[in-house]
Specification:
- With 313 residues, the protein is α/β, with parallel strands linked by helices.
- The chain has a single domain, classed as TIM Barrel, CATH 3.20.20.190.
- Helix content is 29%, strand content 14%.
- β4, α6 and β5 form a beta-alpha-beta unit.
- α6 packs across α7, α8 runs parallel beside α9 (256-264) and α10 packs across α11.
- The radius of gyration is 18 Å and the shape is globular.
- It starts with 5 loop residues before the first helix and ends in an 8-residue tail after the last helix.
Length: 313
């Protein structure tokens, strides 16, 4: 199948693509409408985001399965105390009681993003909210790398997993956004469900080898990512065998040899999450298709220093 989504993510002469990770997490609160709007205003045309569903079946944009106290405040403006509520156990109305506009700077997670602005009154958005924004004429070139979160507690619950996939696909189709959406996951079995439910949207296979530590303060996807026995050079062949069109390795895992193999197999290569100047430089030198980053401005600046751009001109 010829996928219309692919050119937007593919490198071109003079172009390496830039993807805003959860909007622009290093600058504004992640996976919020405010963060996405900021990224769009800076000229980012590719957005990565995470979705799951509430207890009443509303598809919402959030990374962690639980409301974590490092980034969520209650209605009184206090950091959460006690047990962290699970998103899937709350209704969408319940979620509106929580503020996701800032980070607790004393937490392990908060210390990772000292430059993130602290806002008040931000809420976890619905996927439908972002899709509506992107239907506006000025955003007609914006594409999504849409990560469906896989709940480790539900790995054996095929019905629940199928329901989540179908809900996400339904939202994308209702908005007419399927030609601009790529379905993305660490859970390759979940991606197989996506391929069956939505053959018009290409599958993007995330990978992270076990040797690299999970990111502090957030849910790890290593439990659902089937790459424990792999080397970097194995990964492109495994993705191609699973009918993936995108290989999305952790930036410390990719090598020149594995990138060359991915190209031989016709895979697009998107590296995540690349934030430090020396790492951005290495990805530019390797010549990946796209760089996913919490700091879009850093990638823009280094691309321009190389005489490159992140969009077709």
């Amino acid at each position: 199948m010829a996928f219309p989504q692919i050119p937007a993510f593919a490198a071109a002469p003079g172009v390496i693509r830039l993807i805003g990770h959860r909007g622009a997490r290093g600058v504004l609160p992640e996976n919020t409408m405010e963060g996405f709007e900021f990224a769009l205003k800076t000229g980012v045309e590719l957005l990565e985001l995470d979705v799951t569903a509430t207890s009443d079946g509303v598809v919402v944009i959030t990374h962690n399965h639980h409301l974590t106290r490092s980034m969520v405040r209650d209605g009184n403006g206090n950091w959460l105390q006690g047990a962290e509520p699970k998103v899937s156990a709350l209704s969408f109305a319940d979620l509106q009681d929580y503020d996701v506009g800032g980070l607790d700077g004393a937490s392990a997670y908060g210390r990772r993003f000292p430059d993130q602005a602290f806002l008040t009154g931000l809420r976890i958005p619905r996927l439908a909210d972002l899709l509506a924004l992107l239907q506006q004429p000025q955003h007609q070139d914006v594409h999504l790398l849409l990560e469906i979160k896989s709940d480790p507690d539900l790995m054996e619950d095929t019905a629940a997993r199928q329901t989540l996939v179908e809900a996400v696909v339904s939202e994308v189709r209702q908005a007419g956004m399927q030609p601009r959406t790529v379905l993305h996951s660490f859970d390759w079995d979940l991606l197989a469900l996506c391929q069956r439910a939505a053959p018009e949207m290409p599958a993007s296979f995330l990978t992270q080898l076990p040797k690299n530590a999970a990111d502090a303060g957030e849910d790890s996807s290593k439990a659902v990512n089937p790459v424990a026995s792999c080397t970097a050079l194995d990964l492109p062949d495994r993705v191609a065998a699973a009918r993936g069109r995108f290989w999305c390795p952790y930036y410390l895992d990719i090598t020149a040899q594995s990138l060359a193999r991915a190209r031989e197999l016709g895979l697009l290569t998107v590296v995540w999450t690349v934030n430090e100047p020396q790492d951005i430089e290495r990805m530019i030198t390797l010549g990946v298709d796209a760089i996913c980053t919490d700091y879009p401005g850093r990638v823009q600046r280094q691309l321009l220093m190389h005489g490159l751009h992140w969009r077709n001109r």
